[in-house]
Amino acid sequence: MGGALVAQKGRYRENLHEDFRIRDFINKETERAGISKIEIERYPSQVVVTIFTAKPGIVIGRKGEAVKKIRQGLEDLTTKKVKVEVEEIEKPDLDAKLVAENIVGQLERRIGHSRAMKRAISRPCVRVLRASRFRPVGVWLVPKWPAVNGRSKPHPRTPFAP
User: Fold this and answer.
1) Which value, in Å, is the radius of gyration of the alpha carbons in the chain?
2) What digits encode the pLDDT tens for the residues 123-152?
3) Positive or negative CA dihedral for 129, 130, 133, 134?
4) What's the CA angle centered on 101, arms 94 and 89, to 5 degrees?
5) Report field, pTM of the whole predicted structure over 0.85
6) Which domain holds residue 64?
7) Gap between the Cα atoms of 73 and 93, Å rounded
């Protein structure tokens, strides 16, 4: 679950259920923020919640209003002092949960499933291989050939020309 439990003996079950409630609360409050994971660390007098998100501006809100609202809700939920930290994900295209949520969003908007999957596969490939001499064509990675008379030489394994 990704949370550090520093708890008294015999409180594991209560802390685990509280972690589930904390995660549910945060996910309901920030549905559109692209949250990848939530880490919960417990100390005797406080709980530290770290939210890893692709869009930290949505989680923080204007002048920190959204974070204050989340902090207040969590303090009411846990009856302890809560510290909320927001961490930005540098490369959201490479995060599996965010890619899956992106595909789900595209399917809900009635975009074709094969197009949504191809976009999800090609975007990280292009990002990782941008500086190399390879480019994605279909599912395979095909080397770039120098153009001859304005045409590229297709790779022999490709089912279609680039």
Assistant:
1) 22
2) 766 665 554 555 555 555 555 555 555 555
3) positive
4) 40
5) no
6) 12-90
7) 31
